[in-house]
């Protein structure tokens, strides 16, 4: 079963998350398949830029709790997007949760419709947004992250744009992306690669400095008793024991 659909038009490769059974959650197979697709795009001289989008009403529901990827694999995917010598743009017309927001932060640009909603839900299942902080902390408003990391509350696309998680929000996402993609098509591959390297240098410094510690933190938290209670409660559609 293919979890990533691929199409190409005028040098732009579109990678579509297509895992409806789990709302495009980051399962181990999906992470591996997306990483392979990005590797192919990086090597292909006919690809100028990549659009990452989704089927259904959810961009990405976060980590798949039934078949989660190893933390190191998720770190590798996020770093791959940041390091890719070609721009990666997110096209979001549905909801994004937890690890899905890490994907958005790793992308170079992103556009979402007003129908999209966002939430860092990790704290509500007994873990923390550890590895996704690698691209998020250097790129997103720290006071806003404090609020949304700690409360797990949902926010809309306008707020996501204000805090730096998105580039823009628009009723017609494709119309919003058109001038961005046209600009990329007019840019030289060398110019894009070198300019992206300038823009991502500080993000990659965060990966170099913190990836090992945050990977270990994620693994420790997900194997803890509170996380088992939180994930079980989520799957059983009930409140975990600590809710008061």
From TrEMBL:
Family membership: Belongs to the enoyl-CoA hydratase/isomerase family.
Protein name: Enoyl-CoA hydratase
Gene3D superfamilies per record: 2-enoyl-CoA Hydratase, Chain A, domain 1 (3.90.226.10), Lyase 2-enoyl-coa Hydratase, Chain A, domain 2 (1.10.12.10)
Top-level taxon of origin: Bacteria
GO molecular function per UniProt: catalytic activity
PANTHER family: ENOYL-COA HYDRATASE (PTHR42964), POLYKETIDE BIOSYNTHESIS ENOYL-COA HYDRATASE PKSH-RELATED (PTHR42964:SF1)
